[in-house]
Amino acid sequence: DAKTTQPPSMDCAEGRAANLPCNHSTISGNEYVYWYRQIHSQGPQYIIHGLKNNETNEMASLIITEDRKSSTLILPHATLRDTAVYYCIVRGWQSGGSNYKLTFGKGTLLTVNP
Amino acid sequence: DSGVTQTPKHLITATGQRVTLRCSPRSGDLSVYWYQQSLDQGLQFLIQYYNGEERAKGNILERFSAQQFPDLHSELNLSSLELGDSALYFCASSVDPRQETQYFGPGTRLLVL
Q1: B29 vs chain A: nearest CA distance in angstroms?
Q2: Shortest Cα distance, chain B CAs vs residue A88, angstroms
Q3: A93 touching chain B per CB within 8 A
Q4: Each residue of A38-77: pLDDT tens digit?
């Protein structure tokens, strides 16, 4: 699976949009970009994933550049409860394979300030 | 609430002992994954089961073993425990190994004294 690079920490004001970047310059054509978050020692929580197109759900939006070498997770109106470590994960599909693990890096600690 | 349950929530034991962690996947999920999160290693994949069969192994020590039962719940057995085994242990489940989304349980916090 491709390696990802994220800033170690970011701050955001409550009510503002939080934009979390992720670089994955070695991503290959069949690899998806996933975002999870972990709120202080709780189990990681799935947020969103995408392949090529931008995606949006009730939690966030995912913007993937045209060359797919980077992406941005957008939390449109951050709240204090969004303070967490956000993980960007690139995960491949191995046709006929059996290993679909998630490889977590160090992630970005997003702190939402009042 | 992800629908994945793990017991116990906390476990305190001594070095050299053996413990069993239990995971019940979401209803309908056939695949179970175990992860370990320690302060120095971060979140690491240990092992994956699908419908009772082992499918993949990660950084799992030989002292650790797991199984998935016919009712699809899974157990992670940790033996000859060492201080360094103190960590959070998470279980995740998905419908099948190709399903993108893994749903994580709340974890079991293990403290080895």
Answers
A1: 15
A2: 13
A3: yes
A4: 998 899 999 999 999 899 999 999 999 999 999 999 999 9
